[in-house]
Write a structure and sequence with these properties.
Chain lengths: 617, 150, 251
């Protein structure tokens, strides 16, 4: 059926009433849960429900959701409206889950166990990982089926669009977004309202609106989760944006590594068209707008807006100087607005609940919430959305549960390859657009990678430079040649051939990169290096002066040994990929240094602190 | 391979430069690499010089000019994977397969690649065999994975 | 008419002009390696960086590539300030490591006081500094026979599959526009070889000197509408013919 401004509210009301009576068993089928047989679980749940023959008196719906953002606990099954929360579900658990559902006694062994109290938590409302969150951008993530448009509509979907088309002028929409203080969530933090206003005023047609779903920062996956789990939210944000600036054509640029996101977006676009929410005369109004999906080609630099636009044009994704703004001359040299996935999905919320509501959360300069991907050496790896201004310490320790037992926190990397590494002393910094930049890092798109004492910061700096060498487009000299030289120096240091003067050369290269490069990739490429030099200089010095990597990462600068704490449990021998650990059962084991590849598997597996890292022989 | 084989793929896209990357994606999906006649056909379809098609085909990592092995083994090199030992996984894969990253084994069974983050960071470190994701991977698991593929 | 302050001097600028053009008109030297009058600026070599500021920026300034930065009213520009000099020098050191034999690179390095390159120098390094002038010239003005292959540190200029290209017409525009003479070609009498492809060069109908290749003549005829007969006259003979015509007129 075609929805119009006149009938959409009634349609939603009907859906809400219908769904009120409904119990929903939701199986996560996001990329992470699929990897752990989420589809198998969904299928088994279907069979179990059928076998149980629940009859007509209980209204049950089995659906699959998009990524919840807590993949390490997957496959995840939730039962709404109560919010019963099962983790690590296998197909063979389906029968028990259905039986628990019928009897009202949840399956204890599948419930999440609190890290400190070891208590089982029945619903996700009680799980600290979720209870500390304010999920605005991720409001529908894991709560609806991404392929059912009715689920979205029932949760106030397309309500903001109807409100806008029924009674707001484009300028009023721009004003509302500006008043909310919405800043670009992709990393730049540019004022979205200002961008929209420039594009709305620019002459030239057609105008374009682009959703950046390229999410290139390694370690960040909130945009993937949102596109997979709530595609209509992204579409609605774009349609409202298009109305505000007067665009007739939109593009969603999605990373080629995210095939499920493409699939769900395509389905959502087809459904929205079918119901009159996209295409000609949206909701029966005079406003028409179309969207196309452009698949990225596996190039990090295409996250940069000017490179992304070249890529949509079918060209090589080389950035251009931004002396002329995209709002005036962007895609095909026409006025263009580009925002990322998380920015667009905030738009319906702002228009529905009002700018004041949005701006009431956050800090003076950064309004609303931000989704973070807190991963690495933490107990709860996943997506965490909190108000802007939450401290790093709260994010890492309160919500994500801190570093695993036995290890100590060393650093947190924020902002991807454009950001930096911050030590323990900086953990009380509030995370927003401006604060981290002052400390030599940046919030960026929201990746927070936590490192412990088993991570070497020189190696991490080298990792980012290597990443950027692979991803540099090669157009400008400082980035192409400078990063190549930087990698050579850092590689030398991690291989024990570092010289004291190398640190001076690094500083010099950082200056050329910052001041000379064409685009943000090169300009910010120095950050991971500079921040590690600033906060972890002693590690560099130890590598150069003593030829020692105390984290046990740089293979040529360390060796692994077994001490007298060894109980002879042989766990180390089992995980050694080159079988160079030997010893009798219950007796001291020995590592044969010859074949040892310093992978550290034994160290990580040992529960008795019996493996030591020493300098290389 | 005659260029007419690509006619069906090409027909779906308007004959303009804007279609170039989308067409190359379709060719790559269908053939698992970009065969030379396809590149020539795409250039003709989009009315751009072959040199420009080559430029695009070699710029983007999603495209390959060489046929790949029967299976593609990718080690994720995202930051979360890196701090959890992804380079050790890559070393181990290189050692067991006897080929370097980016190469195909002599028997043509595996192509070994690295990928800069697949966005499954909560399951790091990650190895992807064809489309199957294997999370929380340890160096010692590599042997088993490769054996299972035999 | 807008006005900018260029190295402390008030200078009138035209709408749409870029800083580099204004500076050159004013006789101020700014080094460039990727700029060519025949094609649009690219901003790739970064040597033309200059420092710009405005009174309202309250002391804040930034480095921009003058080849691409519009000369807007009120701009204060320094073409050789300390940060500009330092960054150019840093870039030249990187180019010296890559292409130590490229003459313009060596010459600029000398000008900027680089005595020893701080990075390992590739003594047999390619003269190509990836300025992209050749590919821009070929793609925008000729047939687009060459392009940039790969990306990042592996980037290079080549014909498709590094084989003789069917699109190449042997016009030498790429080689002649290259600032570092990095594109080798051979011209032996009426035989020309470039990018691995050998061409027959037609001789001038007047004096027998080499003129254009057959492929080039065909392409010019098709795209510019100049007949082959007209192309088969060398520049010298054309000039003589014109001079003779003028002489007739004068008498």
């Amino acid at each position: 059926m075609k929805l119009t401004l006149a009938n959409i509210d009634g349609y939603r009301q009907e859906l809400v009433t219908q769904r009120k009576e409904l119990q929903s068993i939701m199986v996560c089928c996001g990329t992470g849960c699929r990897a752990r047989n989420g589809l198998g679980v969904a299928e088994a749940m279907g069979e179990a429900l059928e076998a149980a023959g629940l009859g007509d008196e209980v209204k049950v719906e089995l659906t699959s959701t998009g990524c919840h953002g807590w993949c390490e606990q997957g496959p995840i099954v939730t039962i709404e409206p109560d919010g019963v929360f099962y983790t690590n579900v296998k197909p063979e658990h389906a029968g028990e889950i259905v039986a628990g559902f019928q009897s009202g006694h949840p399956v204890q062994k599948l419930l999440y166990r609190d890290l400190t109290t070891r208590e089982r938590k029945v619903t996700y409302h009680e799980v600290p990982f979720y209870s500390h969150q304010t999920r605005w951008a991720m409001r529908n993530v894991g709560r609806i089926s991404p392929t059912e448009i009715d689920h979205y509509i029932a949760r106030d979907g397309y309500k903001a669009l109807a409100k806008v088309l029924a009674g707001m002028s484009p300028a009023e929409v721009v004003d509302e977004v500006a008043k909310a203080g919405l800043r670009g969530r992709g990393g730049g933090g540019f004022d979205a309202g200002r961008k929209w206003r420039s594009a709305a005023r620019a002459s030239g047609s057609p105008k374009y609106i682009i959703c950046n779903g390229d999410e290139g920062d390694p370690g960040a996956f909130m945009d993937r989760s949102i596109m997979e789990a709530d595609p209509h939210g992204v579409l609605e944000g774009m349609i409202i944006g298009a109305y505000a600036i007067g665009a007739t054509q939109g593009y969603i640029y999605v990373r080629q590594e995210y095939p499920l996101a493409v699939k769900h977006l395509e389905q959502a676009m087809a459904d929205a068209r079918e119901m009159g929410l996209l295409g000609e005369q949206i909701l029966g109004s005079d406003f028409s707008f179309e969207i196309k999906i452009a698949r990225g080609g596996g190039a990090f630099v295409c996250g940069e807006s000017s490179a992304l636009m070249r890529s949509i044009e079918g060209k090589v994704g080389e950035p251009r100087a931004k002396y002329v703004h995209a709002a005036d001359k962007g895609l095909f040299d026409r006025p263009t607005v580009l925002n990322n996935v998380e920015t667009f999905i905030c738009v319906p919320l702002i228009l529905d609940k009002g700018a004041e509501h949005f701006a009431a959360t956050g800090t003076a300069g950064s309004k609303g919430t931000k989704a973070f991907s807190v991963v690495g050496k933490v107990n709860c790896n996943g997506l965490i959305e909190v108000p802007m201004g939450t401290t790093l310490r709260e994010l890492i320790f309160d919500v994500a549960g801190g570093v695993p037992k036995g290890r100590t926190f060393k650093a947190v990397q924020t902002g991807g390859p454009s950001g930096g590494c911050l030590p323990e002393s900086q953990l009380d910094l509030a995370v927003d657009f401006d604060t981290l930049a002052d400390a030599g890092s940046m919030m960026g798109s929201g990746g927070l990678i936590v490192m412990d004492d088993r991570n070497c910061l020189v190696d991490v700096a080298r990792y980012f430079v290597k990443f950027l060498v692979d991803e540099s487009c090669g157009k400008c000299v400082p980035c192409r040649e400078g990063l190549k030289q930087m990698l050579a120096i850092l590689s030398r240091i991690t291989q024990g051939e570092g010289r004291t003067e190398d640190l001076v050369a690094i500083d010099k290269l950082c200056d050329v990169l910052k001041d000379g490069s064409l685009c943000a990739l090169g300009k910010s490429a120095a950050n991971p290096v500079l921040s590690t030099l600033k906060y972890f200089r002693s590690e560099y010095e130890e590598h150069i002066r003593d030829g020692f990597c105390r984290a046990g990462v740089c293979g040529k600068l360390c060796s692994y040994h077994i001490n007298e704490k060894c109980t002879g449990c042989a766990v180390c021998a089992k995980v050694c990929p080159v079988t160079c650990i030997s010893g009798e059962k219950k007796e001291l084991h020995v590592i044969d240094q010859g074949p040892c590849i310093q992978c550290g598997s034994c160290f990580d597996a040992c529960r008795f602190d019996a493996i030591e890292i020493r300098s290389a022989p | 391979m005659p260029s007419t084989d690509f006619a069906e793929l090409l027909e779906k896209h308007p004959p303009v430069e804007e279609s170039l990357i989308e067409i190359l994606h379709d060719v790559q999906l269908a053939h698992r690499y970009l065969p030379r006649p396809a590149l020539v056909a795409v250039a003709a379809h989009c009315a751009v010089p072959l040199a420009r098609v080559m430029s695009v085909a070699t710029f983007y990592k999603a495209f390959s000019l060489e046929p790949k092995g029967e299976k593609v083994l990718k080690v994720c090199m995202g930051t979360a994977c890196h701090v959890k030992g992804a380079s050790q996984l890559l070393d181990e894969a290189e050692r067991l397969l006897g080929c370097k990253c980016g190469e195909t084994t002599a028997d043509g069974r595996y192509t070994l690649e690295e990928v800069n983050c697949v966005g499954a960071c909560a399951m790091a470190p990650l190895v992807i065999e064809d489309e199957q994701y294997h999370g929380k991977f340890k160096p010692v698991d590599m042997k088993l994975l490769l054996k299972a593929g035999e | 008419m807008s006005e900018i302050i260029l190295n402390g001097r008030k200078v009138k600028v035209r709408k749409g002009e870029f800083l580099l053009a204004v500076a050159r008109r004013e006789g101020i030297e700014i080094p460039t390696l990727c700029q060519h009058d025949a094609v649009e600026p690219a901003g790739a070599c970064r040597l033309c960086l200059v420092e710009v500021t405005r009174p309202e920026w309250e002391g804040w300034s930034k480095l921009v590539t003058s080849c691409l930065f519009p000369a807007e009213d009120g701009l204060i520009v320094s073409t050789d300030s300390a940060p500009v000099h330092k960054t150019r020098k840093g870039i030249l050191e990187l180019l010296m490591a890559r292409s130590p034999n490229a003459v313009p690179v060596r010459e600029l390095a000398r000008q900027y006081g680089i005595e020893q390159c701080p990075y390992p120098v590739q003594h047999d390094g390619d003269n190509c500094i990836l300025c992209d002038i050749c590919t821009r010239v070929c793609q925008n003005l000729v047939t687009g026979a060459i392009s940039r292959i790969d990306r990042g540190v592996g980037k290079r200029v080549a014909t498709p599959f590094a084989e003789p290209s069917t699109d190449c017409v042997g016009c030498l525009a790429c080689a002649k526009s290259c600032p570092t003479a990095a594109i080798p070609y051979e011209d032996e009498g009426l035989r020309r070889t470039i990018w691995g492809k050998t061409f027959e060069v037609a001789s001038c109908a007047g004096c027998g000197a080499p003129t254009v290749t057959a492929e080039q003549a065909a392409w010019i005829e098709q795209s510019k509408g100049v007949s082959r007969e007209d192309q088969l006259v060398c520049d010298r003979c054309k000039a003589q013919k014109t001079a003779a015509a003028y002489q007739k007129l004068a008498w």
